[in-house]
DNA sequence: TGAATATTTGAACAACTATTCAAGTATATT
DNA sequence: AATATACTTGAATAGTTGTTCAAATATTCA
C-alpha cells in the first residue's frame, strides 16, 4: 500500500544508484584514507603543520612538537615513506621539508574550517 | 668554527621559533585530528562520499558501501556522534545525510588532489 | 496483538598503532 | 683513532579500533 514515504525512498534508491556509479575505486579509496590516517595523529599533524612554516631538523621539530626525539623520528619515517615529507642530510643534521603540497592544502583547509565553526 | 651549515641551521632556528608561535592549540589540534581520523577508515570514507551524492537509508548505504548492516551502523554512529552526518527517522527507515559541509570540502579536495598525482 | 522489517547496540576478539627504551649508524671534531 | 652529536631503528608493550555475532529496540502492517 502506498504510504507517505514512497517518494522519498524512491529518491534514496536513485541516489544509491548514482552513489554506486560514482564510488571511489579500491586503490583511490585506500590512498585517500592513507593520507587522512597519516594526518590523524596529533604528533604527525603537528610535524606537518610545523614544516608548512619551513624546513627544520629533527631537533628543532622535537622542540616545536614535543615528545622524544625517537618518537618524532618514527613519525617522520612514516610521513617520508608515504611521500608527504622529504629529508636531506646537512652534515650531522637531517633537514626535513614538505614534499606534497596537496597535503598542505588539505591541512590548511581543515584548520581554516575548524576556525569557522561557532561551537 | 664556522662551517657551511651555520646559515642554514640559523634559518632552521628562526623557522622553529615561528612554528612554535603558530602551533595549533591542544583543542584545535585534537579536533582537526579527530576529523582526519574519522575519514581515515575506508568504510566511513565511502559512507561520507556516498552521502555527498544525497540522502540515504542504512540499507542503501550498505548496498553502496559493502559490508554488513551492523558494521555500517556502527560507523554511522561514530560519524553522527562527531557531527559529520545527521539522521532523521522516516517510518521504519533512518535517513542519513551530511551535517558538516566543511568535511565534504575536505574530502572533495583530497579526492581531487589524488587524481592530480601522476604516479 | 503478533509478525515482519529496519536499525541499533553491547560484548568479545583480532588487528593495528604509537610510544618507549636500548642499541645501532652516520657525520664532525679533536 | 676516539669522542661527541644527530638521528634512526627494532623489539616490546599498552592502548585503540573495526568487525562480527547475538540480542535488543522501533515502526509498520495485517
Describe this structure in words.
Chain A has 119 residues and is mainly α. In chain A, strands 1-2 form a two-stranded antiparallel sheet. The longest helix of chain A has 16 residues, at 6-21. The model of chain A has no long low-confidence stretch (mean pLDDT 90). The first copy, chain A, is built from 6 helices and 2 strands; from the N terminus they run H-H-H-H-H-E-E-H. Helices cover 64% and strands 10% of the residues of chain A. Chain A has a single domain, classed as Arc Repressor Mutant, subunit A, CATH 1.10.10. Chains A and B meet through helix 1, helix 2, helix 3, helix 4 and helix 6 of A and helix 1, helix 2, helix 3, helix 4 and helix 6 of B. The first copy, chain A, binds a DNA duplex (30 and 30 nucleotides) through residues 1, 3, 41, 43, 57-59, 67-71, 73-77, 89, 91-94.
Amino acid at each position: 500500500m502506498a504510504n507517505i514515504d514512497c517518494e522519498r525512498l524512491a529518491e534514496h534508491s536513485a541516489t544509491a544508484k548514482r552513489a554506486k556509479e560514482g564510488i571511489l575505486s579500491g586503490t583511490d579509496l585506500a590512498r585517500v584514507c592513507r593520507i587522512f590516517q597519516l594526518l590523524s595523529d596529533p604528533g604527525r599533524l603537528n610535524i606537518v603543520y610545523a614544516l608548512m612554516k619551513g624546513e627544520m631538523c629533527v631537533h628543532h621539530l622535537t622542540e616545536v612538537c614535543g615528545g622524544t626525539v625517537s618518537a618524532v623520528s618514527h613519525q617522520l619515517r612514516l610521513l617520508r615513506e608515504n611521500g608527504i615529507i622529504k629529508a636531506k642530510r646537512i652534515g650531522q643534521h637531517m633537514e626535513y621539508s614538505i614534499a606534497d603540497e596537496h597535503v598542505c592544502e588539505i591541512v590548511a583547509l581543515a584548520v581554516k574550517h575548524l576556525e569557522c565553526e561557532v561551537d
